[in-house]
Every structure is written in C-alpha cells, then in structure tokens.
Automatic annotation (TrEMBL):
GO terms for cellular component: membrane. Residues 10-452 form the Major facilitator superfamily (MFS) profile domain. The chain crosses the membrane at residues 49-68, 135-157, 177-199, 241-261, 281-301, 313-331, 337-360, 372-395, 426-444. Keywords: Membrane, Transmembrane, Transmembrane helix. Gene3D superfamilies: MFS general substrate transporter like domains. It is found in: Membrane. SUPFAM superfamilies: MFS general substrate transporter. It is a multi-pass membrane protein. This is MFS transporter.
Length: 459
C-alpha cells in the first residue's frame, strides 16, 4: 500500500514520540510538590535529581548520535523509546531520593537519543526548504507533551483508585496515585512502537513511498554529501560544531527552567496549588506555536531566495530581541500578566531553538549528522545542569544537608557565584534569561557561523 506524503506520516510518528518523551519527563516536574512531600525531598535534593537526569542526558547525547548513525534511524529510535519507557515505569517503585535519582538517570540515558534520531529522520525524508518546518513540528510534540502532562498525570495522581485492587495496594501502598501515573505513562511507549516498526524504512527501501515523493527526496539526496562517516577527530575539529554547542549551552537553560522550575515558581510567587498548575498549558502552547512559527518563517525566507543559514540567523535575531521581556516577569503582580510575558519569551526561546537545530541539519553532512547533532546537544544539558544549581541556590539559601557529588563538584568550581546569588529568589535568573540569547547570537556571529558553507564535507 502506497502512502501519499509518506514523509509527513513519518514526521507524525516522530511528533508522537516527542509527545511521549516529554510526558514521561514532565511527570516528575508536575507532581513535584506531592512527590517531594512523600519522599522527604527538599529543593536541593530535587535539583540533584534533575541534574542526574541531565548528566545522563549529556552522556547519552555523546553516545546516541553514533548509535543512530550506526544502527539507523529505525532501530536506534526503537531502542531509545523502549529504554526510557522501562525507566519511567520503574519510577513507580522508588522509595527515596537515591532510587528516584537512579530512575531519572536511566530515563535520561534513553530520552536524549530521540533528538539526534529525529534530526536524522528529517535529513533522510525532507528537502532543505522543508527541514526547519519539520523540525518545528516534531519539536512541537515536546511542547504538546509538556502541555498535556498536567491534564494526564494530575488526575491520575489525585484519583482515588477503586476498592478491591490489592495488586496496586501491595505494590504502592497509600502513595499509589503518583506511582500509577509513572507506570501508565511508561506503558504508552510500547504502543507507539507498533506503527513505527511497521512504517519506518529509509526512503530508498520503503515499499510505501509514491514515485513522486521518491523523486523529491532523491533530488535532495543528490545535494547530500558523499564520503564516509567522520572520525571523532574530524567531528571535534569541525569549528561550527563548537559555536553551535556554545549557543545551546547558553540558551537552552531558559527552556529547561520553564520545564523544571516554573510550576514551582507559580506555586511560590502566586500561591497556585497542585490542581491549579494546569495553567502551565499556556506556556507550553506558546512554546509549540514558537516551534512552528520559527520553522515556518525561516522556511518562507528560504523559498524567497535567502540561503538556509541566513534565514535561520534572521529569525534568531528577532528572537534575541524579544528575550529581554524576561526582566519584567518577576515584577508582575497578577497571574495574567505573568503568563502573557512568559508566553512571549517562551515563544521566542523555542523559535530560536528550532532554527539553531536547523543550522546543524543544514551544514553537517548526512553521514555524520547524528554524531555532530549529539555533541552540539550535549551543550544543552550542561547548561541545564548549571541552571539547576544556580536556581536551587537562589531559592533555597544556605544548605542544611550535605550536598550530593554533583552539588559539591559544582560548588568547588563556582562557589563564589553560588554564594553571591544564594537566597535571592528567582529574580536574578529572570535577569540572566534576558541576556543569554543576545549573548549567544553575538558569539555565533563573531565566530563566523554565517560564513560556513552549507553542506560542506570534510571527509
């Protein structure tokens, strides 16, 4: 059976994988107040758990790109989904901070791989003029997943299970609500695997692709680089990779903050309870719109005759101009004005991220795209770790418990910085978020990213 527009069906499955990825990721963040109370976890321990996830995420990024390049998009993606789904299900049985940290570490090892796999799928199935939009669409899956999570997991966590379910009682006891949420959201990944394994093949090997679409993809194949996969030495010598890594290290912490901490910020600053935190759908909707708009607009510029690289950078400039709105958020007295300003900055942050990711796909030869994308994305999780440490110090004040190894290591490197912001609340972080994107754009421009020839091959 032939599918018209098969590449969009493929993209739909990648979109759903991103939804599941973020539902499994966000379950902890949405239920954090309840879980922290049940497990006796303070904010610094919460930050340590987040950082174990991000540490594994960083390690997995460095490995998963090579795995995707070696195993192929189909097999690599299936491996990652199975791994993170099992890790999420295992979270239902945690008993304390250490077991929670272990499960989040395992989750991070699996979840990072979907992004280099998704970028490789886009490079295999989409011509250059459609790639930014395709990246925007599957990234919107992450924001849709984040927006849906409160509506899925809060009812699961607060719903009283029917009487006569001794299996759940024996497994989970009185804390069954949030534990069931982890169990059921993890199971969803195995349902996703069925259509993925049935449908996905490389375009050259697919029996379901139409001749017209095959010709369209073959045209872009002709423009793809030839040669063998880069060695690690070649990857590390590729200067644009380091510029893009720094760009993500500086700017991705903004999006991580809204995922990991913003619900807690609303609870602290605006007195929202667990059920009221469903209002965060506004933020994730803005992120999804930003993902689409960023990809659509740069694609429009490409169709108008601009080079892909120039188009991405123009959109990123507009995003950097919007980010200083972050400074105004802590001063908002009402929830409505807080959400409006936050939505604007999240919109800009995601439109920026889409175009930064598209630059990687534009300029890296396809045979090594997974590897380079992974190294660039590792900067994202390193920036997220630093953000967690800073924000935890800002909101917690002096530590009252011995820190974990991540906390102690970060303090040994950045002790004076942590001391300077300790106990000052969220304000300094909102100021930092106003400046990070403009700074990253200056570094990209000064480093000459705009002079790099798209699709060049160093093999």
């Amino acid at each position: 059976m032939k599918f018209r527009g098969l590449r969009w069906w493929i993209l739909g499955l990648v979109f759903l994988a991103a939804v599941l990825n973020y539902v499994d990721r966000q379950t902890l963040f949405v239920l954090a107040p309840t879980i922290q109370r049940d497990l006796g976890m303070d904010d610094r321990e919460y930050a340590d758990v987040l950082n174990l996830f991000l540490l594994a995420y960083t390690v997995a990024y460095l490995i998963s790109g090579k795995l995707v390049d070696r195993l192929g998009t189909r097999g690599g993606t299936a491996l990652f989904v199975v791994w993170w789904s099992l890790a999420n299900m295992a979270t239902a049985w945690v008993q304390g901070v250490r077991s929670m940290g272990s499960c989040r570490f395992l989750l991070g090892l699996g979840e990072a791989g979907i992004w280099p796999a998704a970028s490789k799928a886009v490079s295999e199935w989409f011509p250059p003029r459609e790639r930014a939009l395709a990246i925007g669409l599957y990234t919107m899956g992450a924001t849709v997943g984040a927006a849906l999570t409160p509506y899925v997991v809060i009812p699961l966590a607060t719903h009283e299970l029917p009487k006569g379910l001794p299996l759940f009682d024996s497994w989970f006891g009185s804390q069954s609500g949030w534990r069931v949420a982890f169990l059921l959201t993890g199971l969803a990944g195995f349902l996703w695997l069925i259509p993925w394994l049935l449908l996905y093949r490389h375009p050259r090997h697919s029996k379901r692709i139409t001749p017209e679409e095959s010709a369209l993809i073959a045209e872009s194949e002709e423009m793809a680089s030839t040669g063998g996969a880069w060695s690690w030495r070649q990857v590390l010598a590729f200067r644009p990779m380091w510029l893009l890594l720094v760009g993500r290290l500086l700017t991705d912490p903004v999006w991580y903050f809204y995922q990991f901490w913003f619900a807690k910020y609303l609870g602290t600053q605006h007195g929202l309870d667990q059920r009221s935190l469903t209002v965060t759908w506004v933020i994730y909707t803005a992120a999804g719109i930003g993902s689409l708009a960023g990809g659509w607009f740069s694609g429009l510029l490409v169709k108008g005759g601009k080079s892909p690289l120039s188009s991405r950078l123009r959109v990123m400039l507009g995003c950097a101009i919007l980010m200083p709105l972050s400074i105004l958020i802590p001063g908002c007295g009402g929830l409505s004005s807080t959400m409006i300003l936050t939505a604007c900055t999240v919109f800009a942050s995601l439109a920026w991220l889409i175009n930064l990711s598209a630059i990687v796909v534009d300029i890296v030869p396809r045979h090594s795209l997974g590897t380079v994308f992974s190294v660039v994305a590792a900067g994202s999780s390193l920036g997220g770790i630093a953000m967690n440490m800073l924000v935890a110090a800002m909101v917690s004040g002096p530590p009252v418990k011995a820190g974990g190894f991540l906390d102690q290591g970060f303090r040994s490197l950045f002790g004076p910085l942590l001391t300077s912001v300790q106990g000052q609340g969220y304000g300094p972080w909102f100021l930092a978020m106003a400046l990070l994107h403009p700074l990253a754009l200056i570094i990209l421009k000064a480093g000459g990213i705009q002079r790099h020839r798209a699709g060049c091959d160093r093999s």
